[in-house]
Each structure stands twice: as C-alpha cells, then as structure tokens.
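Can't paste images in this forum, so I'm doing it all in text. The chain is below; anyone willing to post the predicted structure tokens underneath?
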Amino acid sequence: MKSLLIACLLFSTTAKAQVFETAKEAVKNMKVGWNLGNTFDSNSGDTLNMWIEENKYRTATYYETAWGQKATKPELFKLFKEAGFNAIRVPVTWYPHMEATFNSVKGYHNSKGEWVRTPWLPSEDPIGTKIQADWMKRIHEVVDYVISQGMYCILNVHHDTGAANTAWLIADEKVYDEQKARFEEVWRQIAEEFKDYDEHLLFEGYNEMLDSKRSWCFASFGATGNYNAAIASSAYKAINGYAQSFVNAVRATGGNNAQRNLIVNTYGSCDGSGGWNAHLLDPLKEMKLPEDKAENHLIFEIHSYPTIDNLSSTKSGVRTSINNWNQYLVSKGAPVIVGEWGTSTENAYDNYRQNYLDFARYFVEQTKANGMATFHWMGLSDGDARTAPRFNQQDLVDAIIKGYYGDGGYTGVASVNAHQDMKVNVYSLSGVCIGRNMTKQEAMSSLPKGIYIVGKDKVVIK
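Text version of the structure:
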C-alpha cells in the first residue's frame, strides 16, 4: 500500500509540473482572499519627504514595519487558512529596493529648529534595474509562508504605480517607451526567482497605474474639463503596452512561468462603477487581453470601493458592476478577480457597520455566483492583531466567509472517501494522492497533518 501511495504522489507531482490549471479554474479555487497590505508595499511616496530613506540603516524589516504593521509570521496565514480563506495577495513596492542610493536624502534642523529633509532626485540617483538580494529574500520567505498553507499567492508590482510623484510606471505612451526595458527587467528577475513554483503562485503585472495627470476613475479625468481625448488615448495604449510587456517578460523565462497564470489590471484598476460620467466604463472597454503563447492563463483584475450609505442602492450597484465586468472583460476571454475591495464610505466601520457587513456578504455571494474571486483590502487582521495572530474584525470575517460558504460558514469537516474503481484513484487534496480500495480510516491516515479544503468544507488531519 505504501508503494502505491508513493507512486501516486510521484505521478501527481510530475503531472502538476507539466500542466497548470487554467485561469478560470484558478480563480474558482482561490475562493476568497485577503491583502497583506501596508507591509511590503510601504514607501515614502514623496521625493520631497523621503522619510524612510532618511534612515541609512534601513533593512527589509524596517520597510516591512514602516507603515505600522508587525513583521509577518507564518502563523498569520494559518489563521486565514483555518477561517476559510484560500488566497493571499502580497503587494510589493520595488523601487526603494533597487539601485538608487538615496544619498541626497539628509535630515537636519534648520535655524528655526524645524526638521528638514533634502529631496531625492531620481534623475541624478536613478532606481536602476537590479533588485536588492535582501529584499528579494524576504519576499521569497513570505511567499513560502503562504504557499506552505496550501493557499494561492499573488505577487505584484504595487506602489511603483499610483498618484505619488515617486511612481515610475505611468500610463503614458512616452513614459512606457522610456520605462519598458526597466519594467521588463524587474519582472524578469521576479519570474526567475520563482520560476519553479507551481500553480499556487500567480503574478500581477502592476497595481493602480495612472496617467500623466494622476487621474482616478478614468484616464484624463484630472485634465482641464475632466477629459482630454489625447491623454486618454495615450493612457489606454500604454496600459495595454505594459500588460503585453509583462506577459512577454514572464513567459520568456520559461520553466513553470511558461504557463503560470498572470494577472493584468485595467487602467487605475478602475471597475467602471457609477453613472455620473460617460467615460467611467472606458477603462473596461479599452482594456485588451494580451497576446499569450499559453492559452487560457490570463486574468483581468479590477478594484471596487463603493459607498454603502444606502444598502439597497449599493447592492444594485454591485449587480450592475458585475454585469459590466462580464460584458467588457470576461467576454474578451479571461476571468476576473477583484484584487481589492472594501468601502469608500467614511466611518463605515462605525455608523454604517451593519450595512457594511450586509454589503460584504452580498458582494462575496454575487462575485462567487459569477465565477470571480475577491481579495478584501486589509481590515481583518492588522497592527498588533497580526502578532497574536488573531482577527480584529471577526464580524467582518464571518460576513465574508458566510457570503462564500453559506450560513453554516466554514466549519464542517468533510469525510474523505476512497474511490472504488479499478484505476489508481487520485483524490486531490492539495496535491495528495490516495490509493484505491482504502477504508476511510486508511485514507485519513495517509494524509499529512494539515488543513485541506474540500468543496465548501475543511478537513483537519491532526
């Protein structure tokens, strides 16, 4: 029996190295996820106030904790796994960890006794292309923390984009031409670092990339008159250019990266919600599916932060948004994930708490019904809670989990049954195989200790 089990395990490992699940299958299997936010995405965010870089002895841990979070522990992801989450998005900002020395950044007291920092001048002290080894090592450790729990992990390029003047990735054709080689080289290094990882690791090309006017909602909204056709056209062409460069760079590294599931975001990660402007849907309409040698291994990502002052209106908006995502993105040949979601309503956790919990459950229910995975933006275990680790918003966790698994939540223990056909039976529990004609007790004893997801339930092997 042991030899059969070993042979089965070898068969599973070999098969998995050859064929990855499709993007659609991966999105379904992610179920619900969470963002390890304000951690590896930390950065100073202002060339005139580089308060992190002022410390010349900054380490990877210094950055990891700079925005108020605690150093990440493996136990944190075990907490999420046991609760029913099956995916973690790890946002990473790379530019402070490349080749810029930040030697121009110095702090001193002026004649008034005020603390003053000299600015960083990227033109004189560029970020270069090479990622620092200590930073990559720490990111690698945390990716392993996630993967070791049998969870999916999304690794991205985060605040290298956005509205801050430190962003070097901008949705503009001229900037794309200037940064294309550096962008591809960054992704080549990341892809090489993780090229042997299996389908549980996904790459996301870029986060919320904005145009030259730092426009939210849709391209060129920040221009005079809130729209400029030339700026908008350049922005959407650039977004599609970055998306294609990302896919090309990763695929060129070979190995498992030849079929790894890859994620591309719309302009600004905009979701097209709202009806107050005719251009709100443009980020969805203008997004193209990159050309790819690997068929069915691309995913679209959007972010969603609706207001929840009126619950009925919010739910209606959710339905409309999902219809738009299906019409303008899924129809192009790739599934959708909501890489970040929450609410933009001020004091939502106080004045609108019940509305938020109702919205959270409904949002997860509706996205699941449409084959979309969701990743809540932080707010579940943050600050000191991560050290325990524990949830600091258990009611929100419950709402999310019930939204996906139903009223019973993620509490049931599924039976593990051995199939009784004439072939070697492959019972897929995190890649573990079980031989044929085994009793339930034998099957259970054959599994390594751990927590497994089977359908909507969890199996705990102690």
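DSSP finds twelve helices and twelve strands in the chain. Residues 300 and 336 are 5 Å apart (CA to CA).
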